[in-house]
Design brief:
Layout: H1 3-24, E1 27-31, H2 35-41, E2 44-48, E3 51-60, E4 66-74, E5 79-80, H3 82-85, E6 91-98, E7 101-109, H4 110-118, E8 127-131, E9 138-144, H5 145-150, E10 154-159, H6 166-172
Parallel strand pairs: 3-6
Antiparallel strand pairs: 1-2, 2-3, 4-5, 4-9, 6-7, 7-10, 8-9
């Protein structure tokens, strides 16, 4: 992990601890720091409505039209990505930043995502892309957020549109351009 990713991850943790989780009424039971447990359980154990959930937190420095699903962390060494490794994880909190501000957060039901992608025909809505900018030769499935939202696998739980560029707005609401004012909201 490079310094930029490390800084972004720290900002994401701070945002979740101080803003998102309190606003949602979610309580942190444990921040997982042990790398072995973190690889299969995620970053944090939350209490939501009296039940425990293992959650992995993802951060990105710019908004994508697609959810980036890491299938293989390194294809050369056959090192699987988080999609396969997070076996005891219930969901993801996917945060996008604009400079130092979180502008949108997606809540991803990992069980439903796995069910969807068990059928290889569903992969057709996405695109397989490779990257060498991370931990090796990474294979990602780029799957459109709009399909995941429509299939009720993903929910937008936080957004600050006044801090988004028009280009970012087009990625989230391509069907609404030109844009009308949509108010800030937090959905539970």
């Amino acid at each position: 992990m490079n310094n930029k990713e490390n800084t972004l991850e720290k900002k994401g943790i701070e945002f979740c601890n101080n803003i998102l989780y309190p606003k949602m009424g979610w309580n942190i039971i444990e921040r997982i720091t042990d790398k072995e447990r973190q690889e299969i359980m995620g970053d944090v154990i939350l209490s939501i409505g009296g039940k425990k959930y293992n959650i992995d937190e993802k951060t990105a420095s710019y908004l994508h039209e697609d959810m980036i699903i890491e299938i293989m962390q390194d294809a050369i060494t056959n090192n699987m990505g988080w999609f396969s490794k997070l076996k005891k994880c219930d969901g993801l909190i996917y945060m996008y930043f604009n400079n130092s501000d979180v502008v949108i957060v997606y809540k991803v039901n990992l069980k439903k995502l796995r069910e969807l992608l068990t059928d290889i025909k569903n992969w057709e809505k996405g695109k397989l892309k490779s990257s060498t900018g991370g931990w090796g030769y990474t294979i990602n499935l780029c799957y459109p957020w709009k399909h995941l939202i429509n299939d009720e696998i993903v929910k937008i739980i936080y957004k600050q549109e006044h801090k988004m560029s028009m280009e970012d707005m087009d990625k989230i609401y391509p069907q609404y351009a030109p844009h009308s004012e949509i108010p800030f909201e937090v959905n539970k």
